[in-house]
Structure formats: C-alpha cells, structure tokens
Amino acid sequence: MRTISATSIDGTESSFVDQGFESISIDEQNHFETPRMVASKINEDRQLSDLPGNKSMTFEVLMSSSDPNVSPVVDLDRVSAILTTNRINSPVSNFASDPKVNQTGQDPCASSYVSNLIQLDNPATSIKVDFASYRRNSADIRVFFKILSEGSTEDSMDKDFELFPGFDNRDQFGEIINKSSNNGKPDDNVSPSVSTEFKDYTFSIDELPPFTKFQIKIDMVGTNQAQPPFIKDLRAIALA
Questions:
Q1: Looking at the domain assignment, is residue 92 inside a domain?
Q2: Are 139 and 48 found together in one domain?
C-alpha cells in the first residue's frame, strides 16, 4: 500500500508527503505509526503531481500461481477499504490555569472518559485512581474528580471537576504545594511506554471534605493521531 502523510489535529507533521509502499495484510487491521490521508481529487491534482496518476492511496497486489492452468483473480467490483482515525487532540497548554477543562460540557479535549456518579454508603475523604496505560511520548493523560457532600442538593452537572495534584505539585513529604497548581498528572512521573508495555499510573488526593458521591474524568491528549494512549484495569477507590 502506498500512502501520503497527513497532519494531526494539533500536530506538526507535513501533509502530502509520499510515504512509499508498505506491506499490509488484507484480512486484518493495519496500523500506521503516523497519520495518513486519502486526499480529494482537487488536492491530489494540485499536490501529488510526482506520484503515478496523482493518487494519494495505491494498492499493489503481487499474484502468483503454482498451477499454469489457474490464474489468481481480483474482483474489482468488490474492492473496498475501511479507514479510521483516532479522535485525539492537544488543545490545552496549561491544565492548571485553563478553566474550560474543569467545566462539564466545556472541555476542549476531544478524547475524554467520564464515569457515572458513584454513590457511597459511608462518607469518604480521599480518592485514589489506578490504571495501566500504554502511552507514547506524543500523548498525555490527565485525571479529574468531582465530589458531592452527604445531603447536598447540588446537581452534579452544575459542579466543576477538580484536578488531581500531580507529582510536580507535591513536596518531599507528599503534601500539595499549591492547590491552584493542581494539574491532573499522576502521583509519580511515569515515562512513556516502550514497545507494547503498559505502565501503572496512580492518582490520589487526601483530606477532602466528607463526601458521599464522586465522579472521575480522564482526558487523553496527544499530537499524533496515530498514537493514542490506551487504558485498562481502571479502578477508582474512595477512602475514609
């Protein structure tokens, strides 16, 4: 398959660059390390004059047979390709100071997970979120929480999310340095994944006002739409 490059939503890649031929499988999903595009006819003619037929996507099929009486055949009436991309962007430069990320329905991050509102039988004062993630160096993960006190009549949709403190906003004793600098990062600095490894992430906050309802939000951002983060084994625990 011969493709051309594309630019991620908040990426810096150059578009319309020939990526050459790559071997693919026709009976399973094929993933690229960088974004690719199928351009419109107008853009193909304007941008791809150096490619055969000005085509942004070309398939080359090499056919062979061990029987001189049998020739492989491709049914061109049923040739198709299903193309997908990942809905991930990186619109926030500073999570601690951008109020939009905290507001329900106003978050500019395209890839977000929001849990159901969780009801507790007994009041809690701490929250801990754990999961494993495959995250490349072009991506990032930020985690938020929302709490409601016992007997509160406030609607969860009306209350803003709050960011977990982050490893770089804690002192040597684990205490929060400045609450206004909470940035949603994990408790420890987790390096990007290598190969296919999933790494453990922990987000925690203590000494909250007693609450009986809470909700978790996870923002996944990145500058390469071909390399989104993956999350598994998600656990959210409320502690007294």
A1: no
A2: no
Structural domain span for residue 193: 99-239
112 plus 219 within the same structural domain: yes
Are 193 and 185 spatial neighbours (Cβ–Cβ below 8 Å)?
Answer: no
Contacts of 62 (CB under 8 A, 6+ apart): none
The count of other CB atoms within 10 Å of the CB of residue 59 is 13
Which three-class secondary structure string do you get for 144-210?
EEEEECCCCCCCHHHCCCEECCCHHHECCCCCECCHHHCCCCCCCCCCCCCCCCCEEEEEEECCCCC
CA dihedral 43, 48, 53, 59 (to 10 degrees): -90
Q: CA–CA separation, 164 vs 45, rounded Å? A: 50
Per residue in 12-53, pLDDT (tens digit) is: 999 999 999 999 998 899 999 999 999 999 999 999 999 999
* pTM (two decimals): 0.90
Residue type (1 letter), 46: R
| Residue 99 backbone phi and psi in degrees, to 5 | -70, -20
Residue 126: left (phi > 0), alpha (psi -120 to 50), or beta? beta
Nearest-angstrom CA–CA distance, 192 and 135: 6
**Chain position carrying tokens 């809905």:** 87
Residue 122 shares a structural domain with residue 164: yes
Kindly give the pairing relationship between strand 162-163 and strand 230-239. Answer: unpaired
pLDDT in tens, 216-240: 999 999 999 999 999 999 999 999 8
